[in-house]
Amino acid sequence: MAFDANLTLPRPPVPDTTATEKTLLTVVGLGLLALLTVAFDADAGRARLSFWAGVLLLSAGTLGWAWYTFGRQPAGVLQDNLWLRASSSRGAVAWLTAVVLTGFYVVLYWFSNDNGQGNFGPLNQLIHALDPFSQWLRHKPSDQWFLYGTFYTLAVLLMGGRALWKYRHSPYQRIRTASVMFFQLGFAFLLPGLLLAFQRPEYYFSYFWPLKYDYLFPGTVSYLLKDGGPALGVFMVFWGAAMSFVGTPILTYFFGKRWYCSWVCGCGGLAETAGDPYRHLSDKSRAAWRWEVRIIYTVLVLIVALTALLWLGASGAVPALQAVTEPLSKAYGFAIGSVFSGVIGVGFYPLMGARVWCRFGCPMAAYLGLLQKHFSRFRITTNGAQCISCGNCSNVCEMGIDVKQYAQRGEPIIRASCVGCGMCSTACPRGVLNLENGPTEGRYQGSQLIHADSLRILS
């Protein structure tokens, strides 16, 4: 506790919230309250008005608060008081946020199925408030997944705006943030909706197997070829297979897994924007790393085996498999696709950090990580002579890597889990860490890693 030399009275460790900040946060709160009232309003017209009023208040308050908090201060990574605030130190506010997020996912996944009757349970009014927008974009009424996609995209855009203010001094962070905002809005929200409007399959061109696991399942391939049309359907199947087995290895060789996990993927996009206030909560212990390795590669093996079994069963070579593979795919979809990636992956942001799913469960991250560690030119080089052991780099790493230990020894960071977000480099006050693409020869030889033809990306 710090003391004032003149008054000898203790000063609070966390600065008082200004009147302007309180006003902006109140606007955010009113927006959330307006959205909450929609769920209990039986009048469709009034509910729709409350919905868009809530979205407007929430957007204005969030962007205004982001500008007031970060835009008026000197540029730089501001990590002050994170462990002193209840919202970012697993305090009461963090637990409340986790409960609300988890509860929303549970209701969305398992209590909002309309069964073809147009009633979506607890979220019914919220979902139908989007009917005009859904009809305009997709030419069909809204459903629980359209509500989810709208909220998801809104979160990425609003918190992406916050990230642009917060990290405006770093060209790399600005481009990376703009990239995930673009891919979420364009490829994961608008384009799938337009495909439905033209009576084509709802397809996400920015998601690939094994993350979008069913895209290479026999049933999905048949559906795409049938309903997608002779040209588009074939292209969808070709695109998914080519990106999984050709595009991914090539791009990872040149850029590491960051080309996807930090620039394209919607899961990573939400983590890097909405999850940014919680990045310091990732466990850096050796025990956490052991669990990470055990779980994430198990999930990868499971989806590879399941995909192979589904194709084997569909071929008719082993007729008995057809009765087994369908329950297995449903079990995987429930346990991994819903509980792990959704409920835990997002609901636990305020408690375990923003990359829980990416770090412990995502099979795409495991696949990319193996390519990055053993075949990629990407690495983070360090200069131990300049490291002052401040720990900023480790604090901002949401993948649980104790970056400081590498920096102190001047060792390159070539880890399967690293998503190349570059936050460690951005947060370093001495320029010790640099993201580079270079020849694989000599990649484990410390200072000899810097070659003349390396691409050096400064933060």
UniProtKB/TrEMBL annotation:
Q: Does the keyword Membrane apply?
A: yes
Output the superkingdom of the source species: Bacteria
For this protein, the record's InterPro entries field holds: 4Fe4S_Fe-S-bd, 4Fe4S_Fe_S_CS, Electron_Trans/Redox
Pfam families the record matches? Fer4_10, Fer4_5
Instruction: Identify the keywords attached in UniProt to this record, alphabetized.
Output: 4Fe-4S, Electron transport, Iron, Iron-sulfur, Membrane, Metal-binding, Transmembrane, Transmembrane helix, Transport
Q: Where is the 4Fe-4S ferredoxin-type domain?
A: 378-406, 410-438
What parts of the sequence cross the membrane?
A: 52-71, 92-111, 145-165, 177-198, 231-255, 295-312, 332-351
Report which residue ranges the record marks as coiled coil. Answer: none
Name the record gives this protein: 4Fe-4S binding protein
Q: Which organism is it from?
A: Hymenobacter yonginensis
